[in-house]
Amino acid sequence: MRSNENTLLLGKKVVLVPYTAEHVPRYHEWMKSEELQRLTASEPLTLEQEYSMQRSWREDTAKCTFIVLDAEKWQARLSTTEESCMAGDVNLFLTDLGDPSLGEIEVMIAEPSCRGKGFGTEAVLMMMSYGVTRLGLTKFEAKIGQGNEPSIRMFQKLHFEQVAVSSVFQEVTFRLIVNEHERQWLLEQTSHVEEKCYGDGSSESR
């Protein structure tokens, strides 16, 4: 999605940046993991296919993707690459043509050393806030594998409620309706987030 290609979101634990070609090699290494393939229902791709996927995601108006960076590493880095700060990704899919206010959200903290630190929770909150304030979303869905207990617990803590179970796909669907009360709660949870311009000047904003 080109609407977020110049957007950087700075939180306490994570930084969200657009998915660019610079991030592809690390992302490709992550997706060689059989565990991540299972959790994300993904097939392994070649590096060239991964670059092609990144380009298509950038152009896809129905898909908003941010790479999740470790904020502490990102803010401390001097000569290291942004790739070395990568922790995972967070996505919004705007695929319901009959309801443009609905977004399907998913998050992946792929870097093992970054798990269990609240990165996924903050990334989801930041992405939801972006979806509400920038994309006009008022409903979110999350489809999670039945065995992915950490993700299920996380979305439940974020006020999502279970609405469906698919034994065929072995996944559970959670939904959150963003009424005025939920909107205020979400904005409070993300009041610390700074939106900056991503690009040549991003390093100067630190």
CATH class wording: Alpha Beta
Mean pLDDT across every amino acid position: 91
Overall 3D form: globular
Known CATH architecture: 3-Layer(aba) Sandwich
Q: Indicate the structural class.
A: alpha+beta
GO molecular function: tubulin N-terminal-methionine acetyltransferase activity
Function: N-acetyltransferase that mediates the acetylation of the N-terminal residues of alpha- and beta-tubulin.
Protein name: Alpha/beta-tubulin-N-acetyltransferase 9
InterPro entries: Acyl_CoA_acyltransferase, GNAT_dom, NAT9-like
Description:
The protein contains 7 helices and 9 strands, in the order ββαααβαββαβαββαβ. Helix 1 (24-30) packs across helix 3 and helix 5 packs across helix 7. It has one domain (7-193): Gcn5-related N-acetyltransferase (GNAT) (Aminopeptidase). It is α+β, with helices and mostly antiparallel strands.
